[in-house]
Write a structure and sequence with these properties.
alpha/beta; Rossmann fold; five-stranded parallel beta sheet; 12 helices; elongated; EC 3.5.1.44; Protein-glutamate methylesterase/protein-glutamine glutaminase; EC 3.1.1.61
């Protein structure tokens, strides 16, 4: 197999050397070039055609987020952010993921000297993400806000790699009085809190990080907190349950979907969005067998068609839709009479 070719972008010569050293310690990765600015990186992308780019946030001439937005619009490619500003799930990290970055890595510090240990693995994951063409203009949002009448159902959504973009696309199409909605996105602690806050600013419904015992209310979307707890539901509330990783993840989409199948049954609507691996596929199948309506994101609009593919292979999803269509499909299914 050919090695993964990486372009390293950072205005600090020392940091470029550290990133290069961390990546080249893995025999499957080759640093094809390094750039000290966005303008230099732009030229090297054309010359080198790298598989993955690592990108700093704070740079002269053009900051990393502005450059990321331009790259994703004009020449989409897998990007891993490497910055002190992406520490602790900050708003900067969520912004980068929303713009299309695959992942974020914190620069080493006295408090976290081994942060680059995970960099090669994250670059390898990024290399498996397909290069996407710029998204088409979204379809007009449905006219639900004034006339939508929620039923007595619950929507459950699972997502992973590329999920921040996908959740924004889906949930911003929900009406303010949507049915209670529970979401598990694979993310570490603190990231999920900032994700919920960002979605809350962007969406018509209220978006909260889920807490144990929180009642499932109309007009509210609950995001599973990252950490060592799984989000589950009873018939009326959110439950945070301890447990080890399931399918390599905590929180796990399977744990959420399986609880929805048990507690909500035919009153549920489920969707599995972009992500690597199989988490959520078995749970979505259990939801369908319990009488729920079930959907998956299609391959063309998925950053990684792993979890949705697994759902389709199991027969867990009734239909698969593009990212622009799946939000309205969920809302329509939740309003339909059982």
């Amino acid at each position: 197999m050919s090695r993964i070719r990486v372009l390293v972008v950072d205005d600090s010569p020392t940091m470029r050397q550290l990133v290069t050293r961390a990546l080249q310690a893995d025999g499957g990765i080759e640093v094809a070039g390094a750039a000290a600015s966005a303008l230099e990186a732009r030229d090297l992308i054309k010359q080198l055609n790298p598989d993955v780019m690592t990108l700093d946030v704070e740079m002269p001439e053009m900051d990393g987020l502005s450059f990321l937005e331009r790259v994703m619009r004009l020449r989409p490619m897998p990007v891993v952010m490497v910055s002190t500003l992406t520490a602790q799930g900050t708003e900067t990290a969520i912004s980068a993921l929303a713009l299309g970055a695959v992942d974020c890595v914190v620069k080493p510090s006295a408090a976290n000297p081994t942060s680059f240990d995970e960099l090669p693995a994250k670059v390898k994951v990024a290399a498996r993400v397909k290069r996407r063409v710029p998204a088409a203009e979204p379809e007009p949002a449905p006219g639900f806000r004034g006339s939508y009448q929620p039923g007595n159902k619950v929507i459950a959504i699972g997502s992973s790699t590329g999920g921040v973009e996908a959740l924004i696309a889906v949930l911003t199409r929900f009406p303010a009085n949507c049915v209670p909605t529970v979401v598990t996105q694979h993310m570490p602690p603190v990231f999920t809190r900032n994700l919920a806050q960002r979605l809350d600013r962007m969406c018509a419904p209220q978006v909260l990080e889920a807490t144990h015992g929180a009642p499932l209310k109309v007009g509210t979307i609950y995001v599973a907190p990252g950490g060592d707890m799984h989000l589950e539901v009873s018939a009326q509330s959110c439950l945070l349950k301890p447990g080890g990783p399931v399918n390599g993840h905590c929180p796990s989409v399977d744990r959420l979907f399986q609880s929805v199948a048990r507690s909500i049954g035919p009153r549920a609507v489920g969707a599995l969005l972009t992500g690597m691996g199989r988490d959520g596929a078995q749970g979505l199948l259990e939801m369908r067998r319990a009488g729920a309506r079930t959907f998956a994101q299609d391959e063309a609009s998925s950053v990684v068609y792993g979890m949705p593919r697994a759902a389709m292979e199991l027969g867990a999803a009734e239909h698969q839709y593009s990212l622009t269509r799946i939000g309205p499909a969920l809302v329509e299914a939740a309003a339909a009479k059982s």
